[in-house]
């Protein structure tokens, strides 16, 4: 009876939604824009400096949701963007971070590593096959019988693969070794515009050493933060640090221009949005901190980044309008939902929390496990707030994995700085509660570790092998979502939507199947 009632409710819900669907034509072009570390509070603070045809055009004429929520821990650009385009959490799509740890070979690899494919303009062997489910772009390619063109341009490989999917005509990223637009031989279609750029004098390979980032306007106009102490006309010359120049370039607003240049050239070529089936263009921009800024979180650099990004959006929207028409295009803009803080504690200030040393924690835990189970190296690795055990050793010793994990968790949770420890057995077999489910959404069997650590806010993770010591913060970042164009009614919706609701909603707008692991609801406001 319960199943029958549930089915009836689902039927009437879908029937109601179809009744709300627009009667107009489906868009000729979809442009999916992800902005890494994009913040809604910064958008509102800086907005008065923007023109009328970039962000303000989107905000005034689009459907704007105030916030998007990702229901899994340790957000990053790879996991967030893959979730946006698959409509699924990492427990389904398999991308938990930029890199993952291989227990068998005791090494770290790209989450998109694939030894079966070579790179073009890169030595890396990568492909989108590690994405275990379909994306919006994949479903569009299937629906169109292979006729839709799909292109993705992004600063990094993970972003390009996540947004372009398996069926892209091309997914391109900026290679940090040479500044070229790189791709994988997994994609069979050549794109002359990219090849011509890579071989021209305009390639970042030849221009990076002459680039200097200066403020776009008088720095005194960047007055959003009262905490900015170094209000100066900064100059960041990318030719200074030849080892890290492209990595630093990717933290600047110039990377957005580089991505946008390729998008505009493709639009101007007239190859998108001109056929019976819709085409798809995926772009990733950057709106995070610049590590060499003096004021870190309250810098003039972050304000300049947003100011310049507004100009790039204006240029992109104008190019779309000229080539395809905004009324024929569905555009969605989504934040990755996190922000990498660059916190500096003033000298002499005593804060709550402390320093968490993973290597010390691993050594103490292994000593405890030795006392219980014998003198062996039971732990293979601490990696990304997870502990990986030597599963083969446990099998050889005929030790019960569940009991072993539980005892290790009970020991660790007593340590200073550790709020909670969740075992992989709990996530796969245990009784669920909200916290366990949250971590379960970010867990992928075979890739994830045995223990997941939740650290207390205010504690700093100290890694001797890295200069980037992370301080734990649980406060949310306001991350807006905007839909624009193609019969979109201007609305401002003050509610938080799930990241997994975006892909099925776009798919429904295109009248195609949702990605095969997408279980999120369809956003009703998109059809009213």
What would your notes on this structure say?
The protein has 528 residues and is an alpha/beta fold. The chain has helices spanning 2-20, 40-46, 55-61, 77-86, 90-93, 136-143, 157-164, 192-198, 204-207, 245-249, 254-268, 300-323, 358-373, 391-396, 401-412, 424-429, 434-441, 502-510; strands spanning 29-36, 63-69, 99-102, 107-110, 119-120, 150-154, 170-174, 181-184, 212-213, 236-237, 279-286, 329-335, 355-356, 379-383, 386-389, 418-423, 451-455, 460-461, 470-471, 481-485, 491-498. It has a ten-stranded mixed sheet, sandwiched between helices. Strands 14-15-17-16 form a four-stranded antiparallel sheet. A hairpin with an 8-residue loop joins strand 18 and strand 19 (470-471). It is globular, with a radius of gyration of 24 Å. The model is unreliable at 1-23 (pLDDT under 50).
Number of strands: 21
User: What is the rounded distance between the termini?
Assistant: 33 Å
Helix content: 25-40%
If helices are DSSP runs of H or I spanning 4 or more residues, what is the number of helices?
18
Structural class: alpha/beta
C-alpha-based Rg, rounded: 24 Å
Q: Uncertain segments of ≥5 residues (pLDDT<50)?
A: 1-23
Oligomer: single chain
Silhouette: globular
What does the secondary structure layout of this molecule look like, with pairings?
Blueprint: H1 2-20, E1 29-36, H2 40-46, H3 55-61, E2 63-69, H4 77-86, H5 90-93, E3 99-102, E4 107-110, E5 119-120, H6 136-143, E6 150-154, H7 157-164, E7 170-174, E8 181-184, H8 192-198, H9 204-207, E9 212-213, E10 236-237, H10 245-249, H11 254-268, E11 279-286, H12 300-323, E12 329-335, E13 355-356, H13 358-373, E14 379-383, E15 386-389, H14 391-396, H15 401-412, E16 418-423, H16 424-429, H17 434-441, E17 451-455, E18 460-461, E19 470-471, E20 481-485, E21 491-498, H18 502-510
Parallel strand pairs: 1-11, 1-12, 2-21, 6-7, 6-11, 13-18
Antiparallel strand pairs: 2-20, 3-4, 5-8, 7-8, 9-10, 12-20, 14-15, 15-17, 16-17, 18-19
Helix pairs in contact: 4-7, 11-12, 13-15
């Amino acid at each position: 009876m319960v199943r029958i009632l549930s089915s009836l409710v689902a039927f009437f819900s879908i029937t109601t939604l179809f009744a709300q669907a627009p009667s107009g034509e489906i868009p000729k072009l979809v442009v999916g824009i992800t902005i890494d570390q994009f913040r809604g509070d910064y958008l509102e603070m800086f907005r008065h400096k923007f023109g009328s045809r970039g962000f303000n055009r989107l905000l005034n004429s689009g459907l704007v949701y105030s916030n998007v929520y990702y229901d899994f821990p340790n957000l990053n650009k790879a996991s967030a963007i893959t979730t946006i385009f698959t409509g699924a959490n990492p427990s389904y799509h398999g991308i938990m971070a930029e890199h993952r740890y291989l227990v068998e070979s005791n090494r770290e690899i790209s989450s998109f590593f694939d030894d079966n494919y070579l790179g073009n303009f890169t030595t890396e062997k990568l492909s989108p096959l590690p994405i275990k489910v379909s994306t919006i772009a994949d479903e569009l390619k299937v629906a169109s019988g292979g006729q839709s063109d799909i292109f993705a341009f992004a600063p990094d490989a993970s972003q390009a693969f996540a947004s372009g999917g398996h069926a892209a005509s091309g997914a391109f990223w900026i290679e940090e070794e040479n500044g070229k637009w790189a791709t994988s031989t997994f994609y069979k279609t050549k794109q002359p515009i990219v090849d011509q750029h890579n071989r021209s004098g305009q390639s970042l390979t030849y221009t990076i050493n002459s680039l200097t980032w200066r403020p776009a306007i008088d720095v005194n106009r960047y007055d959003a933060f009262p905490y900015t102490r170094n209000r100066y006309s900064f100059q960041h010359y990318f030719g200074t640090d030849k080892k890290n120049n492209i990595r630093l370039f990717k933290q600047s607003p110039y990377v957005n221009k580089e991505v946008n240049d390729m998008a505009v050239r493709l639009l101007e070529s007239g190859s998108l949005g001109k056929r019976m089936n819709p085409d798809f263009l995926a772009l990733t921009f950057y709106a995070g901190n610049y590590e060499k800024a003096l004021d870190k979180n309250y810098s003039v650099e972050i304000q300049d980044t947003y100011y310049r990004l507004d100009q790039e959006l204006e240029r992109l929207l104008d190019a779309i309008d000229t080539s395809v028409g905004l009324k024929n295009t569905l555009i969605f803009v989504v934040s990755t939902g996190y922000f990498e803080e660059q916190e500096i504690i003033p000298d002499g200030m005593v804060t709550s929390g402390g320093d968490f040393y993973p290597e010390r924690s691993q050594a103490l835990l292994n000593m405890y496990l030795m006392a219980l189970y014998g003198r062996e190296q039971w732990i293979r690795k601490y990696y990304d707030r997870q502990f990986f055990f030597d599963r083969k050793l446990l099998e050889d010793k005929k030790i019960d994995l569940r009991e072993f994990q539980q005892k290790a968790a009970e020991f660790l949770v007593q340590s200073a700085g550790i709020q909670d420890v969740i075992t992989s057995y709990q996530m796969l077999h245990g009784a669920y509660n909200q916290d366990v489910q949250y971590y379960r959404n970010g867990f992928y069997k075979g890739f994830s570790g045995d223990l997941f650590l939740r650290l207390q806010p205010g504690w700093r993770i100290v890694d001797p092998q890295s200069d980037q010591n992370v301080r734990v913060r649980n406060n949310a970042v306001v991350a807006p979502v905007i839909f624009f164009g193609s019969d979109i009614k201007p609305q401002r919706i003050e509610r938080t939507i799930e990241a997994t609701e975006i892909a099925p909603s776009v798919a429904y707008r295109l009248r195609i199947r949702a990605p095969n692991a997408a279980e999120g609801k369809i956003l009703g406001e998109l059809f009213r």
